[in-house]
Here is the input.
Amino acid sequence: MKFISTFLFTVVTITYGCNEKTPSEMEIKYEQVVIKEENNTPTVDIANYTLITDGVTDRKADAREILQVKRKWPLAMQTKDRALFNSILAKNFTFKGSDQFYNREDYITDRVADANWKITAVKYENMVLQFFGEFAAYVPQYC
Here is the structure.
């Protein structure tokens, strides 16, 4: 009998401990909303994207800023504009090519100088942008 009561106490304690949520976990409620974009850049098509956050109203401005950078990248590729690359790439940017790594300056020089390829139009589909506190993640969705 002592074994059974000790076993039940242990099971109840473990079950209660595993299901217990902290106050911060109970307060966070994420929303998911599809936001229609104005396509004012003819060669970079983003019709809409899904925003996931705990405050859609508060994060819409942040999401717009992130989407502006998402539009500028293909524009920099299309125009081969060094200044545009400089405005969007982080100071510690690194790119892994098929045969080597490029630091920021080497990457920009390579993209601006390479005449063998050209991007004419880009279409983003199934985009998801999720905020986690002060951080955001672009999550590509593949069909």
Summary: Confidence is low (pLDDT under 50) at residues 1-18. Strands lie at 31-36, 44-46, 48-53, 94-96, 101-103, 122-124, 127-132, 135-140. The longest strand covers residues 31-36. DSSP finds five helices and eight strands in the chain.
